[in-house]
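HUMAN: Would you supply a protein with fold tokens?

ASSISTANT:
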Amino acid sequence: MPVANEENTMAKVLDEILALPYDNLYVYPILDSYTKDHTEDIVKEYEKKTDRVKDIFFKDSCGVASCYLYGFKCALTDGAERIIEMDGGGSHLPSEIPQFIEKLDEGYDCVWGSRFCEGGCLENKSLYRKVLSKGGTILSNLVLGTDLEDMTSGFEAFQRPVLENMNIDKFLSTGHMYQTEMRYYCRAFKTIEVPIHYIASSSSLKMKSVTEALSILFKLKNHENEVVITYK
């Protein structure tokens, strides 16, 4: 869970996750130097109260994607058998975590949160951002040959072997395009989409991020072997 300047929501999110009926569910907030408020102080307080919260500062961060990938490394090192990725600012609802765990229990390798499949929704987002999200999915499916309802959501879950057999350091994306990159590399695994309710934040999507995403999109097919996925 990459978090940055989330002091207004961090405690609520952690409380809701810790209240779920799983005593083996651990939370790894990943922070970096972008955080300027008291988010880390809040995380440290929870770390003192419970061993189920682990404060992780990633000094070599180069963006949100690097924090996701570093979090995977930490979880794998600590022996996690399953890993759930989500945002920490309230955009993703902790109450929807159980459906990801249920699908992993059913034997799926990857579970993708989807705002666009039946039952999913995207709230408080401008028409511009909605068009970009949906349009990005359509374009990605067309270019990459994938067939998902949502190629850009950051709420997802994995069985340990999926991430173990990836060369995580070889991902191209540093920003939000990472989500699409991950779904492309995982397309041969047993995957399923589950509906999520995404509550958009007020942060804007910079044009630089859009141009980076388009540039990477057309490189993925030639880059796949660098990531070294072992298919089942």
Remarks:
- Residues 127-144 form the longest helix (18 residues).
- The chain has one domain: 10-227.
- The CA atoms of residues 187 and 203 lie 30 Å apart.
- Residues 10-227 form a domain with the Spore Coat Polysaccharide Biosynthesis Protein SpsA; Chain A fold (CATH 3.90.550.10).
